[in-house]
Amino acid sequence: MENVLRPLIVVGAALVLTLAVGWLVDTALRRADALQPERPLWGLLRRCRLPLQVVLCTALLRGSYAHTKVAQDHSAGIGRALSLVLIGSVAWLAVRISTAIVEASYGRYAAAHRDPARVRRVRTQVTLIQRVVAALIGVVAVAAMLLTFPAMQAAGASLLASAGILGIVAGVAAQSTLGNLFAGLQIAFGDMVRIGDTVVVDGEWGTVEEITLTFLAVRTWDERRITMPVSYFTSKPFENWSRGGAQMTGTVFFHLDHAAPVAAMREKLHDVLRDCAAWDGRDWGLAVTDTTVSTIQVRALATAKDADDIWTVRVTVREQLVAWLTEHHPYALPRVNTAWAELPPDGAEPRPAPPHVPRTGRG
Description:
It is a single chain. By secondary structure, the protein is an alpha+beta fold. The protein folds into three domains: 2-112, no CATH class; 151-244, Roll (SH3 type barrels), CATH 2.30.30; 248-332, Alpha-Beta Plaits, CATH 3.30.70. Helix content is 57%, strand content 15%. It is built from twelve helices and eight strands. Helix 1 (2-35) packs antiparallel against helix 3 (49-68). It is elongated, with a radius of gyration of 35 Å. It starts with a helix and ends in a 35-residue tail after the last helix. Residues 168-175 and 356-363 have low confidence and may be disordered.
């Protein structure tokens, strides 16, 4: 009877104590969060309740297992298994605590600063710092788990003796990975590109959605995801439309006939922009920027507060001005001359007529 009650009492006591401590800690954090709602740390630390309970329960079982006198022939293996679980749960708890601290710090910074560029920069930095801390904790936890095996302890001296050679081999083998790792740190603290920035990469326009230590994800306007190594952004040029501020100037080009009413078109552009909610009112203009034998190039210019709005302004101007020209000034659209050549004077050799060309405009 004692052989049955003893393990039940030990395990039951460990579970009851674990649940009680978890409930007390969660209650204390909830009250602290209610008393100080401006500090999000207490609410974020409540996510640590489960790993804390796992750590506490495993530690209690590891310390009291010898008193249960259960499976004494396998006590070494069970003790090592409990040690491995304890190390893993401690690492889990450490990652949760570090994540809560980092997120709380970022939340307070974002609430205190209204500059979107600075907030995105800090967000990028804290995200990469959080990933680095999690990776370091994971490496230390794995190393601690391996050291619980006697064979690994005996091989420690040999591993340290050959660390120089292994380091050289690993550096050569992981050259690309290490390059991306340092490139990620350079992006985070060099303020080259930030989460939320609007970029143009390889002709694709999109928004930076995620930055890790090895890759960067860009969400395009049609909701595709372009994943690129972070080393690309430190070795090749790219456009960052959010650098130095989100405000942008957009242009729309029209190829028109020489008889196009430029002055009336300029007034129509102003009317279109006044009715466009995406236009921020900072600047606008219309000018003839080039001329060819058959057409002139007219450039319409407008401003907006960010990349999304400038896209809306450009498509609105292009659509409404083309529709206005088609309806009220069709002669201003580019034309291809399809008339036959005039007859030469008497006595001159006649010029051959050009081949028939389908009409592409109003002639």
